[in-house]
Amino acid sequence: MIVTVTINPAIERIINVDRLAFEDRAYINSSRESAGGRGLNVSCVIHSFGAKTLAVTAQGGATGKRLVQHLKRCGFPVCYVPIRSAIRTNLTITDKQGLTVHLNEAGPKLTRSEVANFEKVLREKLEDASWLMLCGSTPPGVPVSFYAELIGVARQKRVRTLLHAGGEVLRQGIEAKPTVVTPNQHEAERLLGQILFTRAHFLEAAERIRMMGPETVVLSLASRGAVAAFADGLVEAIPPSVQAISPIGGGDALAAGYTWAMSRRSKYTDALRWGVAAGTASALLPGMQFATLEQTKAVYGQVEIRRPE
Fold this sequence. Notes:
CATH topology: UDP-N-acetylmuramoyl-L-alanine:D-glutamate ligase
Structural class: alpha/beta
């Protein structure tokens, strides 16, 4: 079973507008609400691909109740860890050209006992896990070492780990030597303290991050695919050229597709191809939607895998 962690979930309000332009008026074409959080998105994809997954997430307040109602329709099991405060609400605005603005709340402040209880519950769920996926930001009150500590717990239980987060939790988590880390370009830039612009920059960045601790690095590059650093060298995954409708959640789909393939004992280069195919196929769908396995298969054969010379 693949266990995902979302300690800072959200109600995600997604607004589609005609166009986004600085200091100009935009008109709303549609608006919808869904459950938000990287780990919940990942579980959604893994479940739709036919694999077993369990999402462990915090839940509190009126927004937490709405989260439960949204997730009831998703079909995969969810373990809710109660907190006293209401979970956050995020706002995503996107236009027809795919230009997107994310406005995220920090999240509720968790008490020490709430953090300890979340860790206790997660330790219990790891008994049946093959993978632990630590996804997204951590709310106030959660130590920045939280993910790093859970990576250590998982290693003791011989559970493989994937870290899908940014900021200081990514930095400390990397030092705990997870199995895989999946930063996007902006997260990698903040981690390394430099702008990544060229293909050479991406290749160098993936290898630099791998040298910091993780076994594997999959650097997500949106429409440009991904660059991965494995123990035996660098690999590029180049997707077909497509007209993306919505880039929201593409990195989550990539992480899910990669882990799903690895759980099926695929070769790591093939898992990379599945991940990029899942991210690309999801970008072809409007709003916060994720590609099915059949939709991903349609893209999979068009993803080019190559080793840089």
